Amino acid sequence: MSEKIRELISEEKIDARIREVAERISRDYAGKKLHMICVLKGGVFFMCELSKRITVPVSLDFMSVSSYGNEMNSSGVVKIIKDLDEPLEGKDVLIVEDIIDSGRTLGYLMDILEKRHPASLKLCTLLDKPERRVVDIQTQYCCFEIPDQFVVGYGLDYAQKYRNLPYIGVVDFED
Ligand SMILES: O=P(O)(O)OC[C@H]1O[C@H](OP(=O)(O)OP(=O)(O)O)[C@H](O)[C@@H]1O
Ligand code: HPA
Questions:
Q1: Domain residue limits at 19
Q2: Beta strands 141-145 and 151-152, pairing class
């Protein structure tokens, strides 16, 4: 079986929407410092583009968790592959994700990070697939809601492929 990628959200639309969300975040955190946590690997493209457009002082940290492996459905078991370098105590923390699907990854992550006593803990996601939700997640900043389709590009992969596409595409499978 081979796969074909069909464009769902263009590079231009993503760029424009990230600017809008970055403006909102900059307004909401005016007078504060923002500690942004990127969930690797998928969140890295979004984190770079978003953080460049935020106008309050920003610090960055990275965490790697895995639940999908090379599959198209979450295993339900979330593993920490790399923990944060810095403590979160007293910081205004924004988690930056590429996608919320079942919500299992973020549900697990938010529980762990809350226990580290940040001053605030919010979530910013590039994509949200609300139809797929199993775990309830409160998202403060979302760029796009998408239907229940497996997507790639802008950091998102299928079996580690297509992360570097500059747009979001849907994977169509062919014989
Ligand atoms: O809401 P969920 O159903 O939990 O799915 C969302 C998670 O799945 C993907 O991560 P993945 O485990 O594929 O790792 P990756 O970012 O390294 O590709 C994505 O980056 C989210 O972290
Ligand atoms: O639609 C998706 N694409 C890539 N990775 C994902 N992880 C959760 N959902 C997705």
A1: 10-146
A2: unpaired
CATH code of 53's domain: 3.40.50.2020
Per the CB < 8 A criterion, the answer to whether 102 and 74 are in contact is yes
H or E stretch covering 6? strand 2-9
Q: How many domains does the chain have?
A: 1
pTM over 0.90: yes
Q: What is the ipTM of this complex?
A: 0.96
Residue 139 lies in a domain: yes
Ligand 2 center from residue 25 Cα (angstroms): 25
Among 120, 127, 132, smallest CA distance to 151 is for: 127
Q: Ligand 2 center to residue 101 CA distance, Å?
A: 7
Residue 55, both tokens? 């106008």
